[in-house]
Amino acid sequence: MTAVLVIEDDDRIRLALLLALEDEGYEARGAATAEEGLRTQRRDPADYVLVDLMLPGIDGFEGIRQLRRDDDVPIVVVSARDDTHDIVAALEAGADDYVVKPVAIKELTARLRALRRRGRTVTAPDGPEPVPVLAFGELEVSPEAGEVRRSGEPVAVTRTEFRLLCELAEHAGRVLSRQQLLSRVWGYDSGDERLVDVHVGRLRQKIEADPANPRHLVTLRGLGYKLQR
Amino acid sequence: MTAVLVIEDDDRIRLALLLALEDEGYEARGAATAEEGLRTQRRDPADYVLVDLMLPGIDGFEGIRQLRRDDDVPIVVVSARDDTHDIVAALEAGADDYVVKPVAIKELTARLRALRRRGRTVTAPDGPEPVPVLAFGELEVSPEAGEVRRSGEPVAVTRTEFRLLCELAEHAGRVLSRQQLLSRVWGYDSGDERLVDVHVGRLRQKIEADPANPRHLVTLRGLGYKLQR
DNA sequence: GGACGGATGACAGTTGCGTGACAAAACACC
DNA sequence: GGTGTTTTGTCACGCAACTGTCATCCGTCC
């Protein structure tokens, strides 16, 4: 069945849309924020995404951009604002269509069908190769893409932090001593082990929800550091 | 240049649309009836068709159906009627989008670009072999055709820039270090890595909407460059 | 309570990168 | 072959981000 994800913060509108879509034979899912929508879509991709522009937290424009970074799904903006600037900005951000609320469900589904018909841009015959990712709960590390994500959202880390994280990730679940890390990440045969502490600390600030109580990048007193799920 | 055919019986509106489109850098053609439009399109196909619904003789719906029989061109209905039945019928007939008059030219062109992004590459029944295209949002790279396009418009890049772009495109989503690029694009085993910077910079001027904040050709500090959607 | 290992915040030196200018080289066109 | 134009590689400058060090603070284990 064709699945549609509705990202809309107004409960009444979201529910109405979901019910109407189900009446039309779609499998409908809802999300109240862009963050939640992005997470849902990453976990279990729908065939279409409907998204409001005015959302708490990440707004619709930014949500579309983030979604487009790694998803080709047709996106239709459903907004109350009938303003040329918004329409142009949303389409530039990567949306495929823009309709103004309130919208007839029949029109919406007709537009979805039109989008489906039009299909996607041709990519290489064998398609792009997927980039390998190491996952630790909500944390994702992709050495090849040079990317770190938390709950799907990109996290900006520096080169040293990234190398350190990759080293830990590639030996997930094992303790690495400060000496080992100094040697593998920095190439130092000897040196101040405090250096490792500082970078681990900085890394925790970025990748842990509560840096004071790390869940993934943990300290083993007297032994070293370990990355775990 | 991108050509647009406007099928609209009201002379004033047609002329206004044509002038506005030309201002936006399109090659604009007009037709006052569906018959004339179909003939024009068959003789010299435009890249997009804008069509009114209420036309003398063959009406817009039927015009769309006839056009769709042997043309894959994106069709946008530009109508004064804001009626769900019309919208659904037009989309069902084969239109790709439907906007209500009066429409801002900026919105119209944004919708055309969105369609272009999504549109299938044209493959006439016994036309030329389709050329593989690597797509990154509004950016398209065709290594075989030696072509780069942004929102459908060809971008002039030099040979070195093109090779660099292809190398990045063929490893989309992965970081390539300056050394790797030097070696693969220039064939240098060693050399000044700043050379890569300069060419990346020049490439960005041409393919990024805002070269200072690149969306596709991004720098990963300390790691290298990456091309992403 | 003292000692130790680890966390953290501030800081200054360093590095990495973007950019504009320029000259040599390649190219196109007579 | 000569001339004008485009492309290419080199360089220098400047900004912003990163790095490593240090001093201090905190928690934990005897």
Walk me through what this model shows.
Two copies of one chain form a homodimer. Mean pLDDT of chain A is about 90; it is low at about 120-125. By secondary structure, chain A is of the alpha/beta class. Chain A is about 40% helix and about 20% strand. Chain A has helices at about 10-25, 35-45, 60-70, 85-95, 105-120, 160-170, 180-185, 195-205, and strands at about 5, 25-30, 50, 75-80, 95-100, 135, 140, 145-150, 155, 215-220, 225. In chain A, the strands form three sheets. A five-stranded parallel sheet of chain A has the order 2-1-3-4-5, with helices on both faces. A four-stranded antiparallel sheet of chain A has the order 6-7-8-9, covered by helices on one side. In chain A, strands 10-11 form a two-stranded antiparallel sheet. Chain A is elongated. The longest helix of chain A is centred in the middle third of the chain and has 14 residues, at about 105-120. The first copy, chain A, has eight helices and eleven strands. In chain A, α2 runs parallel beside α3 and α6 (about 160-170) packs across α7. In chain A, about 35% of the residues are buried. The interface between A and B is large, with 40 and 43 residues. The first copy, chain A, binds a DNA duplex (30 and 30 nucleotides) through α8.
